[in-house]
Amino acid sequence: MTALEAQKQAKKWIYICFLMQFGIILYWEITQYVDLFPFNDVAGLDLRESLRASYANDIPKIGIILVLWLCLRWMTRPWYLFLFASSLIYYIVFLGIQISIWWPRYIVGATPEQLKEYNEKFAHTIKILPTFGNHVAVDLQHNILQLWTLAIIIVMFLALKKLFQAKSRVDGVLLHQQIENA
């Protein structure tokens, strides 16, 4: 595979990452503000709380869109791999936060405060797993968010692999040219 072919393959993966970024932002905004009951239950949510959640979730994701654009534009620069890897790390941390918020409440049970919040916001939404006692199931809205985040991590990892391959091909071509010119 030539350096140009490797770069084209890497760009395809970055474009897929772009689509997934726009998709997760759109998904978040729709499920945060559009009442799709029983999929979500936004009827009683405070607008300020929703706006804070949107800012906290959307600003980093918009930053990642900028990083992806920079990677496409300056793929031959040495710093783009660091930026791309940082974006991947963000999503790993984001998924870790999602898992740490939702799954311990199901596996080991929710505290009385968590149970109260759950009953106010999520008790009547669609769930895949059963709720029993103080073990509250993750709602479908957040299951999809977690699976989408996992899919983004996988695609970004594959894109990063392609970016490394493209960079090594370009570096190999540059080294070969330097040897020939010496």
From TrEMBL:
It comes from the Bacteria. Keywords: Membrane, Transmembrane, Transmembrane helix. The chain crosses the membrane at residues 12-34, 54-72, 79-103, 144-160. This is Uncharacterized protein. It comes from Lihuaxuella thermophila.
